[in-house]
Structures are given as C-alpha cells and as structure tokens.
Amino acid sequence: MSDDHDDRNVRGEPLSPCCSEPPTGYLRDGCCRHVEEDLGRHEVCAVVTQEFLEYSREQGNDLVTPRPELEFPGLHPGDRWCLCIGRWLEAKEEGVAPPVDLSATNEAVLETVEMETLEAYAAED
C-alpha cells in the first residue's frame, strides 16, 4: 500500500479532521491518516457509542479509562476517534459498530470495506 491515500476521504474529497480533543489518529494530529507504519490502520473515523466502548473494553482495548501518561482522557459516547479497520469490522459482525464520519474516514479503508457498507453506517453530517 502506498501513502497516496493520506489526504483523501472515502468520498474522494480532502480528508476532514476526525477529532483534535483528544487528538486522535496514528500521528495524533486529529486525522485518520493512512500511514505505512500503522499496522493497526487507524483509518475509520467513528462516533463512539456506549455499546461500542463496552465491546472494545471486553476485547481488551479500554478506550474509557483515562491514561494521563499517554495524554489520553478517555472517551465518552459521542466522541469521535480513529478506529482500527479490523476492530470496526469485528464490532460490525457483533452488531455494535459505531457510526462512521465519512468525511473524516480515509479512502484507504475502501481497500477493505465496501462504500455501501460505510454508507449504511454513516454518521449524520
């Protein structure tokens, strides 16, 4: 995969920021960029739900508990966060996938997830 996706969203438009407070993304610059070094592929901008946060904690990824040493305040329902494609797909299979902000989800996601699927989970703009 190349880094030519890092500034476009799934609609082919310039990638919008996902969240700057707290800063999200592999680079912690607020954007769900495609970065070769990011093996987890934090490219899906999700609007997290309580159901998803509980599911993620059960899977061993606690996104709720603050981690000051990592400058991570913990997430609350309604927060936006760059999720790993794999975790979002797992959550989808379990019926707990959070809505996706299409304007802030990297176009590289389309290599793994069909646009129709993303549109079915689109958050309200």
**Helix tally?**
3
Instruction: Please count the beta strands (DSSP E, at least 2 residues each).
Output: 2
Distance between the termini: 29 Å
Average of the residue pLDDT scores: 92
Helix share bin: 10-25%
Question: Which structural category do the helix and sheet elements fall into?
Answer: alpha+beta
Number of domains: 1
- Global Rg: 13 Å
Neighbour order of strands in the largest sheet: 1-2
Would you mind describing this structure in some detail?
This protein has 125 residues and is α+β, with helices and mostly antiparallel strands. It has one domain (3-120): Phenylalanyl-tRNA Synthetase, Chain B, domain 1, CATH 3.30.56.110. It contains 3 helices and 2 strands; from the N terminus they run E-H-E-H-H. The chain has helices spanning 50-58, 85-93, 115-120; strands at 42-47, 80-84. It has a two-stranded antiparallel sheet with strand order 1-2. InterPro entries: DUF2237 (IPR018714). This is DUF2237 domain-containing protein. Residues 1-24 are annotated as: Disordered.
